[in-house]
Amino acid sequence: MASAPTLTLSSRDLERLEQLLDSPAMATNPAAIALAAELGRANVIEPENMPADVVTMNSRVTCVDDVGGETHRLTLVYPRDADVDRHRVSVLAPVGTALLGLSVGQSIDWNAPGGRSLRLRVTAIDYQPEAAGDRAL
């Protein structure tokens, strides 16, 4: 597996994610623990300074599996908004945690359900709230 790429996070996303992780139910949740570790290594910047090529919360991204060649279009969302049928991936899902803060061109190694290894490379950000000026998201 490749080393973890640098990740960038907005202060707004950090605050909201820390609130999510602050519940007692999350204290022993392996997905929450993994997300907290990612948050701890992030480069945090103000939303208005967020580069448009970084995956933030509520971003719609296009990824390519460099192993199998498949293209995936996903929206990174909070757990309450997750919906597999609509390709809305929770930040608490392993792939969601891994995508958060990546830039276009960066890739992550991820084990899909069933144990299949993937290397997902972010090829485009089709929508990012910060770049669109959507402060509520």
Fold and architecture overview:
The structure is a single chain. The protein has a single domain (about 10-130), classed as Roll (Chitinase A, domain 3), CATH 3.10.50. It has helices at about 10-20, 30-40, 95-100, 130, and strands at about 10, 45, 60-65, 70-75, 90, 105-110, 115-125. The strands form two sheets. A five-stranded mixed beta sheet has the order 5-4-3-7-6. It has a two-stranded parallel ribbon with strand order 1-2. It is globular and about 35 Å long. The chain has four helices and seven strands, in the order βααββββαββα. The protein has about 140 residues and is of the alpha/beta class. The model has no long low-confidence stretch (mean pLDDT about 90). It comes from Arenimonas donghaensis DSM 18148 = HO3-R19. InterPro entries: GreA/GreB_C_sf, Rnk_N, Tscrpt_elong_fac_GreA/B_C, Tscrpt_elong_fac_GreA/B_fam. One of its GO terms (biological process) is regulation of DNA-templated transcription elongation.
